[in-house]
Amino acid sequence: MQKCTCCGQSFSWKEVWKANAFLYSPLTCKNCGTEHTVTFWTRLIMGVFIATLLTMINVFLNRYHLAVRYQIIFVCVYLVLMIVLFPYLARYKRSKNNTNEHS
Predict the structure, then answer these.
(1) 2 falls within a domain
(2) Angle at 91 (CA atoms; ends 90, 92), nearest 5 degrees
(3) Which residue range is the domain that position 82 belongs to?
(4) What is the pLDDT of residues 46-66, one digit of tens each?
(5) Is residue 7 in a domain?
């Protein structure tokens, strides 16, 4: 799990998830107040996960003709995995417009 770049305080799974659930909002350290923003690579990873989901749905619809209930189950399982795992994969960097002067 990601830690604050200034004080080393770990961010909780819930804090990271909430920050990403609302369009990658900045994550602020509770200990020192340093603001962190999500990295480009984290956004890229999320984009790949979403594109993979859409591609897999398309493949299953066209090639295997799975029943709708199986497609819904597959999508739900995939989304739950993304929601659970994403906070562990997310990486943040200190904001450029950060007013906190810790080094």
Answers:
(1) no
(2) 125
(3) 13-94
(4) 888 888 888 877 777 677 777
(5) no
